[in-house]
From TrEMBL, chain A:
Stated name of the protein: DUF485 domain-containing protein
Entry's transmembrane regions: 51-73, 85-107
Annotated keywords: Membrane, Transmembrane, Transmembrane helix
UniProt organism field: Sinosporangium siamense
UniProtKB/TrEMBL annotation, chain B:
Family: Belongs to the sodium:solute symporter (SSF) (TC 2.A.21) family.
Transmembrane segment boundaries: 6-25, 45-69, 75-96, 116-133, 153-171, 183-201, 233-255, 267-286, 319-347, 359-380, 386-407, 419-439, 451-469
Name of this chain's protein: Cation acetate symporter
Membrane topology designation: Multi-pass membrane protein
Classification via PROSITE patterns: NA_SOLUT_SYMP_3
Keyword Membrane: yes
Species of the source: Sinosporangium siamense
A biological-process GO annotation: plasma membrane acetate transport
Length: 124, 502
């Protein structure tokens, strides 16, 4: 078989002269609270909520996990970095830039979700 | 200590605050200017203002004092007070700004279409505000006594007076400038001495902690406090979830032009707070080496003020003490002004008939009550009492905001039940701790750190009662969801709710 041979396709003319359905902006679906409008809104709220819960889960694992580590792994607290005990290095230092880093990633993703939603509405 | 120099520092901060306030008066003319600075404040200014307003005496003096006293477990306090903004950022910042609500009661009204819930929220705002103001006034008295020997009531009265004058004269826009200025003053006042203190400590041969302290004080969950694991978790919950429910924080969000700006402002706030909170732990640790006598005297809150004089001495020590004193007064004035504006806003709108005149009467009322409490109640560590205010906020406004923004089925009955049970129980625990405490044993721990049980109760009650009253879901909930979550550049119908103009 000659696999590289191009397939035959039917070429037709687009019906440019035919009447198009009247333009019905997607924002009106939302304004009139139609089923479609609800679907749009739910997709946005779900995306943002999923993102928020993801950040909260990671944050929760870190801050609720640290006391557990301190209790269950006493060796962790004994480690010293330049004479400073590791719990102090984490709680009085590293955790703050980590918060800011997490916030930067969140803001970027949240704005992306909104841009995607706006694009979806304007494309329709 | 050189009382004249310290007094000079206090006078300088007070007059700078008043001057900026009076300057602000010339630019704030209409009622809308007066309240929300017409939303012309840029994100960095706004973030500095949030930072300035947020960093109270509890942050400036209290954290270092508690670290001096209790060690590593107290490091969670600044972590939570910063991390709370991350939770606030992801869960509520943009939707809250888009709601158009200016106060927490506004939000309750807009979302639930209920005046009853609005009033309950108003009562809680006033309660949290007073709980937060009281220890600020108390520690103002403590600071003025420490640096000048003045009687305790003098410092409280001075701060209360300046706050009232400032709030009455300037309104919100000048408050924004005052607050932004106060953040940078506080950061400088805490950061500059640290450099000199660390140099002095190195010159002194860099003495370390005692072996005893190294194995208990410096280690988390290793002290002799009972139920320290419960207390740590409860503290984490209260601080991370309570930040979003503080009345003076929410007002600032309204001065952002849109939801996007609200997010970016919060991001800057996180960076500003993170930089500030690197410092108190250093004071706490140096205090444990050089100033353990404060502990025996029960004046650990004064450690930040004491260290420069003790380690450096001489003129440099005096000057740095003056700088720290100035920072402490900046902390009192900024937090108290912000809280007073919020509490007065609620009293003025919901209890009096509204308008600038009511706001002014309300501002005086908002300050008098906590001032009286501060002079009457026994003094507790400032950061502990502020921690209790966070616990009440986390048990009432956190569920209201989170469920209100993300869950369509929240009803007015559910919200009301949650506010009353969560906020009510947490408030009772707080009153029991302040008036009758400290209590011993498990009960004492449960009352001193109520968040671990009161926050889940508030959430569960709010959800269960809402599910039991499905017919009470507000009719406009779909429109409100559009309003809360769609970016401003989209042309959609967001409903016509507006916060009540005064």
């Amino acid at each position: 078989m000659k696999a590289d041979r191009p397939r035959r396709v039917v070429v037709t003319s687009p019906r440019t002269s035919a009447a198009r359905p009247p333009r019905y902006p997607a924002t009106r679906e939302i304004d009139e609270q139609t089923g479609l409008g609800e679907v749009y809104m739910r997709s946005l709220v779900r995306a943002q909520l999923r993102l928020a819960l993801f950040v909260c889960t990671v944050l929760g694992c870190v801050v609720l996990g640290l006391p557990l580590i301190f209790v269950l792994l006493p060796g962790f607290s004994q480690v010293a970095v330049l004479g400073v005990p590791l719990p102090w290095v984490v709680l009085a230092g590293l955790i703050y830039p980590a918060f800011v880093g997490g916030a930067v990633l969140y803001v970027r993703q949240a704005e992306r979700n909104e841009a995607r939603f706006a694009e979806l509405l304007e494309r329709e | 200590m050189n009382a004249a120099l310290q007094m000079g520092a206090v006078v300088a901060v007070v007059s700078a605050t008043l001057l900026i306030g009076v300057f602000g008066l010339r630019v704030s003319r209409t009622t809308s200017d007066f309240y929300v600075a017409s939303r012309t404040v840029s994100p960095l200014w706004n973030a500095s203002a949030i930072g300035g307003e947020y960093l109270s005496a509890a942050s400036f003096l209290g954290i270092a004092g508690l670290i001096l006293a209790y060690g590593a477990d107290m490091l969670w306090l600044p972590v939570g007070w910063t991390g709370g903004y991350l939770v606030l950022l992801v869960l509520i910042s943009a939707p809250l700004r888009r709601s158009g609500a200016y106060t927490l009661p506004d939000f309750a009204e807009a979302r639930l279409e209920s005046m009853v819930v609005r009033r309950a929220a108003g009562v809680l705002v006033v309660l949290i505000g007073w709980l937060y103001l009281m220890p600020q006034f108390q520690s103002a008295g403590l600071v003025l006594r420490t640096v000048t020997g003045a009687p305790v009531w003098a410092g409280s009265l001075l701060v209360a007076f300046v706050v009232v004058v400032n709030v009455l004269s300037g309104g919100m826009r000048s408050i924004t400038f005052v607050q932004a200025f106060q953040y940078w003053l506080k950061l400088t006042a805490l950061a500059a001495p640290v450099i000199f203190l660390l140099i002095a400590w190195r010159r002194d041969g860099a003495p370390g902690l005692t072996a005893q302290d190294l194995s208990t004080w410096a280690m988390p969950l290793a002290g002799d406090r009972d139920y320290d694991i419960y207390s740590t978790y409860s503290l984490i919950l209260a601080t991370f979830l309570g930040t979003m429910g503080l009345p003076h924080v929410l007002v600032r969000f309204y001065t952002n032009p849109d939801g996007r700006a609200a997010r970016r402002t919060t991001l800057v706030v996180l960076a500003l707070l993170g930089s500030f909170y690197l410092l108190p732990a250093i004071y706490g640790a140096l205090g444990r080496i050089y100033a353990t006598d404060l502990l025996a005297e029960g004046r650990s809150d004064a450690v930040v003020l004491t260290l420069p004089g003790r380690l450096l001495g001489g003129t440099l020590g005096e000057l740095l003490t003056a700088l720290v004193t100035a920072g402490a007064f900046a902390a009192f004035l900024s937090t108290c002004s912000g809280l007073t504006v919020s509490v007065a806003g609620v009293i003025g709108q919901d209890l009096l008939q509204g308008g600038v005149r009511s706001f002014r009467v309300a501002a005086v009322l908002a300050v008098l009550m906590p001032l009286g409490l501060a002079l009457a109640a026994r003094a507790l560590p400032v950061a502990d009492v502020v921690g209790l205010a966070f616990a009440v906020a986390a048990s009432s406004f956190c569920p209201l905001l989170v469920l209100g923004i993300w869950w369509r089925r929240l009803t007015d009955a559910g919200a009301m039940a949650g506010l009353v049970s969560g906020g009510g129980l947490a408030s009772l625990a707080v009153i029991a701790t302040i008036v009758g405490g400290p209590h011993d044993g498990l009960l004492g721990a449960l009352l001193a750190q109520p968040a671990a049980w009161s926050v889940p109760i508030a959430f569960v009650v709010m959800i269960v009662v809402s599910l039991l009253t499905p017919h009470r879901v507000p009719s406009g909930v779909a429109r409100i969801m559009v309003r809360l979550h769609t970016p401003e550049n989209l042309d959609v119908d967001r409903g016509d709710w507006r916060p009540r103009r005064t």
